[in-house]
Automatic annotation (TrEMBL):
<dbReference type="InterPro" id="IPR058792">
    <property type="entry name" value="Beta-barrel_RND_2"/>
</dbReference>
<feature type="domain" description="Multidrug resistance protein MdtA-like C-terminal permuted SH3">
    <location>
        <begin position="318"/>
        <end position="370"/>
    </location>
</feature>
<dbReference type="InterPro" id="IPR006143">
    <property type="entry name" value="RND_pump_MFP"/>
</dbReference>
<dbReference type="Pfam" id="PF25967">
    <property type="entry name" value="RND-MFP_C"/>
</dbReference>
<keyword id="KW-0175">Coiled coil</keyword>
<feature type="domain" description="CusB-like beta-barrel">
    <location>
        <begin position="240"/>
        <end position="311"/>
    </location>
</feature>
<dbReference type="GO" id="GO:1990281">
    <property type="term" value="C:efflux pump complex"/>
</dbReference>
<comment type="similarity">
    <text>Belongs to the membrane fusion protein (MFP) (TC 8.A.1) family.</text>
</comment>
<keyword id="KW-0812">Transmembrane</keyword>
<dbReference type="Pfam" id="PF25973">
    <property type="entry name" value="BSH_CzcB"/>
</dbReference>
<keyword id="KW-1133">Transmembrane helix</keyword>
<dbReference type="GO" id="GO:0015562">
    <property type="term" value="F:efflux transmembrane transporter activity"/>
</dbReference>
<protein>
    <submittedName>
        <fullName>Efflux RND transporter periplasmic adaptor subunit</fullName>
    </submittedName>
</protein>
<keyword id="KW-0472">Membrane</keyword>
<feature type="transmembrane region" description="Helical">
    <location>
        <begin position="29"/>
        <end position="47"/>
    </location>
</feature>
<feature type="coiled-coil region">
    <location>
        <begin position="132"/>
        <end position="197"/>
    </location>
</feature>
<dbReference type="InterPro" id="IPR058627">
    <property type="entry name" value="MdtA-like_C"/>
</dbReference>
Length: 391
């Protein structure tokens, strides 16, 4: 029993001694590694930092290569692009001006040309014709009464000097003659009024022009409350009604040329601005420019069209859209400054041309502007610029 106890105690002591030895070896190894790191750091600080610091050439070699361009200044045509609605320049609605009636015949259709005074619709006038005949008969009766009164007055005038007729009788006969003459005049006026009314039964073209719309059929009963029967474009004149911003309206005047392209066709129609809206809509902040166009059946009122308004020439830099970035404060470009560091430059954009965007403000054209990859750059970042020669 004592022997086993002694052996167990001996073994436990040896195990404890081994554990302590391993711990001490770990501590010594950690101390050696720490000393090596401290020595290496000191050596780098005193001997390696000055020799390994990157030079400007090294930085240039490490910087990304970016294509830049010097835009210069070009003589460009300022163009305003917009869309609008085609319409008749002067649209004349035509309705019933008389008392109306049953339509006997419609003589024109949409798409026809008419002349001023031409009959568009004939209306039944059988009743009105009989009324005019009755008035003509009344005129005959009134004229007969007038002739009788005139004859009686003439006879009385012959007898008054002989004393057979008093002057008072002559005065009464004169009044009777005058009343008969007045009745003739009234009957003539009534007949003329009736004939004028009958003439207004037919619907006539108030102006010469192109019929845009027809809203009446044979057999239909029409009256003053029937609404619009026809719409006529006076003299066939057409226009494009383009909505423009305040800035664009300030750049145009009457007579400025414009090119109109209707939707669905490649045809281009040349016109010019004949009216600029004197007011701005308070909600949309836009006004209307009305562009006069020659008549053509391809120009259908009510359709849409795009327009390019040539508002004059200007000398300004032109850049591709890839060079222009948009931020919180508006549009900007990156220009290459000293030491090949990029800087943001705010710009004011003009209209789009076939060659790119017109830069109205912010550049004089001599700067080196980042052409591509502007969205991946940061202000003051060093780049390796590659100048692209302008064609």
């Amino acid at each position: 029993m004592n022997y086993e106890t002694t052996m167990s105690a001996t073994l436990d002591g040896e195990i404890l001694q081994d554990d302590q030895d391993r711990k001490q070896r770990r501590i010594r190894m950690a101390a050696i590694i720490a000393a090596i790191l401290v020595i290496a750091g000191g050596a780098y600080y005193f001997f390696g930092s000055s020799s390994s610091a990157p030079t400007d050439a090294d930085k240039a070699g490490q910087a990304q290569t970016v294509t830049v361009v010097a835009p210069g200044r070009d003589n460009v045509v300022r163009a305003i692009n917009a869309t609008g609605t085609l319409a008749a320049r002067r649209e004349i609605p035509v309705g019933v001006v008389g008392e109306g009636g049953r339509v006997l015949q419609v003589y024109v259709d949409a798409g026809d040309w008419v002349t001023q005074g031409q009959v568009l619709v004939s209306v039944d006038r059988s009743v009105q014709t009989q009324q005019a005949a009755a008035l003509e008969a009344q005129i005959g009766v009134a004229r007969a009464d007038l002739q009788l009164a005139q004859n009686e007055l003439d006879r009385a005038m012959q007898l008054v000097d002989r004393g057979f007729v008093s002057k008072s009788d002559v005065d009464r006969k004169t009044a009777t003659r005058d009343a008969a003459r007045a009745r003739v005049n009234v009957a003539n006026a009534q007949l003329a009024e009736t004939r004028a009314r009958n003439a207004r039964l037919d619907v006539r073209a108030p102006v010469s022009g192109y019929v845009l719309e027809r809203n009446v059929e044979t057999g239909q009963t029409v009256s003053a409350g029937s609404g619009i029967l026809f719409r006529i474009a006076k003299d066939g004149q057409l226009e494009l009604q383009a909505q423009l911003s305040e800035d664009d309206l300030a750049q145009i005047t009457v007579g400025v040329p414009a090119s109109v392209t209707p939707v669905g066709t490649d045809r281009v129609f040349e016109g010019n601005i004949w009216q600029v809206s004197p007011m701005i809509d308070t909600q949309s902040r836009q006004g209307m420019a009305r562009i006069a166009l020659p008549f053509d059946k391809a120009l259908r009122p009510g359709g849409f069209a795009s327009v390019e308004i040539k508002s004059g020439e200007m000398l300004a830099p032109v850049l591709p859209e890839s060079a222009v970035q948009t931020g919180r404060n508006g549009s900007f470009v990156y220009i290459v400054g000293k030491n090949n560091k990029v800087q943001q430059r705010p710009v004011k954009l003009g209209p789009v041309t076939a060659n790119g965007l017109i830069i109205e403000q912010g550049l004089d054209g001599s700067e080196r502007v980042v052409l591509y990859a502007g969205g991946f750059l940061n202000p003051d970042e060093t780049i390796n610029p590659k100048l692209l020669k302008k064609q």
